[in-house]
Write a structure and sequence with these properties.
The protein contains nine helices and four strands. The chain is an alpha/beta fold and 214 residues long. Strands 1-2-3-4 form a four-stranded mixed sheet, with helices on one face. The chain is globular and about 50 Å long. It starts with a strand and ends with a helix.
C-alpha cells in the first residue's frame, strides 16, 4: 500500500499485479511529500518494535486497513486505486515466483498442476502459506459490507495505459514504469499450463473475482 497525502492518493498493492513497478514509478513523488518523512519514521519504529505498535500500513494491506486507520475525511478525499490480473495468469506467475524464491512453500509439489491441485483442492482445508495469490483480489478492495471502495481498478494486461489514466486522475504526469521483478523462467502463454480440471479449480475458487472484475 502506498499513501501520499500531498497528492492525495492511496495505491492498494495486490501481489503479482505489477504493483512493484507502480510503486517504483511513484517513489520520487512520495519522497517530495512532506508527510513522507514522518511516515517513514513511524514505519521504522514499527519495524523495530516487531510491528507491535501498529503504525505501518503493510505493502500488501487490504484497503479496509486504511479505511479503519485513517480519519474519515482523509480517507474520503484520497483517490484510491489498484491493479488486478487474470486469475489463471496470476496463478502461473505465483507458482514461478514461489519455485524461484521460496521453494519450501511448494508443499513438495514441483509441477504447476500438482501445486495448484494441492492448494485449491475443494475436498481439503485451504492450504495456507506465503502464496498470497490464494486470496481473492476483490478482498483487497472492499469494505466490511462487501462494497468496492476504490475509485479506479486498472488491469495488469494493460498496465501502462491504465497507469497513465490513474496518474491523470491524481493530477500528475505519468512517470515511466520500470520493469521490476520480471519472471525470466516462463515464456509460455499461461493457457498452456492448464487442462480442463485445473482451469475449473481456478474458476471455482476465484469465481467472485471473475464475476465482479470481469
Amino acid at each position: 500500500m502506498l499513501l501520499s497525502l500531498k497528492h492525495q492518493f492511496l495505491f492498494v498493492h495486490i501481489a503479482k499485479t505489477g504493483g512493484t513497478s507502480v510503486r517504483a514509478a511513484l517513489a520520487r513523488r512520495r519522497w517530495a511529500d512532506p508527510w513522507y518523512w514522518p511516515m517513514f519514521v513511524c514505519s521504522r519504529l514499527s519495524h523495530l518494535s516487531g510491528h507491535r505498535i501498529g503504525s505501518k500500513l503493510p505493502r500488501h494491506a487490504k484497503i479496509i486497513a486504511a479505511q479503519e486507520l485513517l480519519p474519515r475525511e482523509v480517507f474520503a478525499a484520497l483517490f484510491k486505486f489498484a491493479f488486478v490480473r487474470n486469475p489463471w495468469d496470476l496463478q502461473v506467475s505465483s507458482f514461478h515466483h514461489i519455485r524461484r524464491e521460496r521453494p519450501r512453500y511448494l508443499g513438495g509439489h514441483e509441477d504447476f498442476a500438482g501445486f495448484l491441485r494441492w492448494k485449491l483442492d475443494p475436498e481439503r482445508p485451504p492450504q495456507y502459506h506465503l502464496d498470497t495469490s490464494i486470496a481473492l483480489q476483490t478482498d483487497y478492495l472492499i469494505d466490511l459490507r462487501g462494497n468496492l471502495i476504490v475509485d479506479f481498478i486498472g488491469r495488469y494486461e494493460r498496465l501502462e495505459q491504465d497507469f497513465g489514466e490513474a496518474c491523470a486522475r491524481i493530477g500528475i504526469d505519468p512517470p515511466k514504469l520500470p520493469h521490476r521483478r520480471q519472471a525470466r523462467d516462463r515464456s509460455t502463454d499461461y493457457r498452456a499450463y492448464y487442462d480442463d480440471e485445473t482451469a475449473a479449480l481456478v474458476a471455482r475458487h476465484f469465481a467472485p473475482d471473475i464475476e465482479r472484475l470481469g
